[in-house]
Structure formats: C-alpha cells, structure tokens
Design a protein that fits this description.
The protein is built from seven helices and 26 strands. By secondary structure, it is of the alpha+beta class. It is 17% helix and 35% strand. The protein has four domains: 84 residues, Elongation Factor Tu (Ef-tu), domain 3, CATH 2.40.30; 81 residues, 2-Layer Sandwich (Alpha-Beta Plaits); 76 residues, Alpha-Beta Plaits (2-Layer Sandwich), CATH 3.30.70.240; 94 residues, Beta Barrel (OB fold (Dihydrolipoamide Acetyltransferase, E2P)). The strands form six sheets. Strands 9, 10, 11, 12, 13, 25 and 26 form a seven-stranded antiparallel beta sheet that branches. The termini are far apart.
Length: 401
C-alpha cells in the first residue's frame, strides 16, 4: 500500500492513508515500510488498528483487500510516499519526490495594542506547539526556532500553502502575526540561485498584452504560446518572488476571466531586482475608533481598507496610498463644534466604498516593514514599529546608512 496522505490523532499518533494495491491487510500484522527514492532504510512496524472511511467518520475494519482505501495506525514514523509491504514481499511503489520548500514566513506572537482580545491561544508556547504539530501531517512544511522565543521560521511550497495554514490556525482560535513572505535562496558553485516556477496562464486573447507586460516587469520568460479557440495559453519560467502580489493584479488585468497555476521547476542564478509594490500605506496616526469625518478626509489620500466604527491603533495600516511613500492619517478625527454654521456645512458626508482585504490579498500587500495581525475575528495590517516618531527615526537612520 502506498501512503498518499497523513492524518494525526493525539491518542494513536500518525495515521497513514492509502489504497491497497496488492494482497490484503489486517490489524495486528507485522509489516515492512520502504521508500521508493531510497532516502531512508527499510524498517519493520506493526499495524495496530485499521479503519475505512464511511461518510465523514472512520470505522474499524478487520480486513481490506485490493482497491480499498484504508487508514492504519501503529507506525509512528510513516510519511507520504512510503510503501507498506508484507515482510516476504518488500517492493517500493513509484512515487513523485516531494519538492523542498521555496518560501519562508516568520510567525510571531501578536504584540499589538489589541493583543489577547480575540484569540483563545495567544502565547508563544501554544503557537510553537501548534506549528510543530502541523509537521506531523504536512510533509512539505518546515518549522524552526529563531534566536528569540516568540518568533518561528515557517517554510512552505508557496504563498497559498502558508495561507491555508494561517487560515486553519485562525479558525482554531489562534492569534498571532506573520511577516511578508520571502523566497529561500541557495548558493551553488559560489553563485546565488533562486527558485524558478513554471507558470501556466489561460486568458482571453485581448488580455495577452497586459500579461506580457506584467511578466516582463517580473523577470518572466515566455516558453510557449498557443491559441485555444478565443483564448490563449501562455507558459512562462518566472522567479518565485516574481509571483508575490501578482494574483490580484492578474485578476484585474484579465477582468476576472484568467486562470493561472504554477509549479516549482528548478533553481537558477539570481535574475535581478524586482519591484514588488510601488504604492505606500495609509497609517493610522492615533488609537481609537474610525469616524466618518476622519475617513472622509483620509479617502482623498488613497484607497481605504476600513469603514466607520472600526477600532484602530497607532501604526495600523488603514489603506493604500497611490504614492510610493507612507502617509499618516487620522481616521479618528471628529468635527469641531462651533456656535456658527455656514450654508451647507452640515451636509451628509459621502464615503467611497472601502476595499475589503482578504487573507491572500493582505499577505500580497505586505511590505518588509509590515506585519499581518491574524485573529479569529479580524485580519489587520500593521507596521512593525507602531510609534510614528520611532518609525520616522528608523527610516531616517536606514537612509543615512
């Protein structure tokens, strides 16, 4: 039986899931576990329990034969791609080698002014235990400690891989913060190499020009172009970092009709600098609750991410600026009361509809000096340095250096 998926249970440990290819399998039976790629030596094990999936539940069974999909426990070190064999017929079944992670993010304890208000699990110990527990059933993930106890390095196969983990954890009640994603470089023969993705794009013919322009700016290399009716299929070889923040732009360029998918191809020499984001951020200047009057004045500076009545704190990103630099705005500003009124001064203020940011859009929006605060109820973008004066000093010092 080839193990094609892994589950985990606190009582029985790892559970291997797969389809029986030959013979039959029963509980309390000695087996040999082998690996097709030969990366680890064969070892013996014993099947403790055997289950079959019926609906949403696992039901115990006494035997399973060819074609049955079963779940087995009792082998603590079983991985996806392992083959479970009878001791007298050890033969590894072919399996595609699992690629190494190419993207890294830092998961850290939430230290914003709103920390601990919405999450059930907020401490570094709880965060660490949850991340390492994910390794038991996700063989493409890598987790390691950093030089501080409240930050952990998490490596995965891409932005979507890590965003699924983030969404799963927030639904479980975890509260934490994550940094902007970064690619994992390698040094080969003394030269810096970066991961390259094989990108497949299917778009309407009238959108090809926008795609070619975007790929050129992101160091993409066209390898194949073929028409399919009124649509065009394009294939590019592009650095993994060139895809950061591109999905939303892609949907805009193709009017929502485009389809894109990417898979890791190889490591190649560094392709040069890529400008990831040309816009700045609108940053809340003080802590409080967003007011219509303050938002009305702030919306002239850029696109807002929040509406009225939303709690905000100093250093929280409340919108995007069309300019390259960040702009501090006061969305909590109220209208001063006076004893005189001009004609039309009390007219209703009209707010432009704000942009609601999803988890994926927020991760794509992040800059190097920003964090994404993730809680079960909210997703907030914030600066690493919340105090406006301290942030200005740090920026000045960086420019001087």
């Amino acid at each position: 039986m080839l193990v094609s998926s892994i589950d985990y249970n606190e009582y029985v440990g790892r559970i291997g899931i797969g389809r029986v290819e030959r013979g039959c399998i029963t509980p309390n039976r000695d087996v040999v576990v082998t690996d097709y790629h030969g990366e680890k030596a064969n070892y013996k094990g014993r099947i403790a329990t055997l289950y079959q999936i019926e609906g949403l539940a696992k039901e115990p069974c006494e035997t399973a034969s060819v074609g049955d999909i079963v779940c087995l426990s009792g082998i603590p070190d079983i991985y996806i791609g392992d083959t479970v064999c009878a001791p007298d017929a050890v033969e590894a079944l072919p399996f595609v080698k699992i690629s190494e992670p190419t993207v890294e993010m830092t998961f850290c304890v939430n230290d914003s002014p709103f920390a601990g208000r919405e999450g059930k699990f907020v401490t570094s110990r709880q965060l660490r235990d949850r991340l390492y527990r994910e390794l038991l059933k996700d063989v493409s993930l890598r987790v390691s400690d950093t030089d501080t106890t409240d930050k952990f390095s998490v490596c995965g196969r891409g932005e979507m891989h890590l965003s699924i983990l983030i969404e799963t954890m927030r639904r479980e009640g975890y509260e934490f913060a994550v940094s902007t994603p970064k690619v994992l470089y390698k040094t080969i023969n003394g030269k810096l190499h970066e991961p390259i993705e094989l990108l497949s794009i299917d778009v309407p013919e009238d959108c090809v020009g926008n795609i070619m322009s975007a790929m050129g700016n992101r160091k993409g290399e066209l390898t194949k172009m073929a028409p399919f009716g009124s649509r065009m299929r394009l294939e590019f070889r592009i650095p993994s970092r060139g895809l950061f923040g591109y999905r939303n732009e892609f949907m805009t360029d193709t009017k929502g009709e485009g389809i894109m998918s990417a898979v890791f191809d190889s490591y190649e020499p560094y392709k040069g600098d890529i400008q990831r984001r040309a816009t700045g951020s609108l940053i809340s200047f003080e802590t409080g609750e967003s007011i219509t009057y303050g938002l009305f004045n702030a919306q002239e500076r850029g696109q807002l991410f929040i509406g009225p009545g939303v709690p905000v704190y100093e250093g929280m990103v409340v919108g995007a600026s069309p300019k390259a630099e960040d702009i501090a705005v006061n969305v909590c500003k109220t209208k001063h009361l006076t004893n005189t009124r001009a004609s039309g001064s009390d007219d209703a203020l009209r707010l432009v509809p704000y942009k609601r940011m999803s988890l994926e859009a927020s991760i794509e929006f992040l800059k190097d000096d920003e964090l994404l605060e993730v809680t079960p109820k909210n997703i907030r973008i914030r600066k690493k340095i919340l105090d406006n004066n301290m942030r200005m000093k740090a920026r000045f010092k960086k420019n001087v250096d």
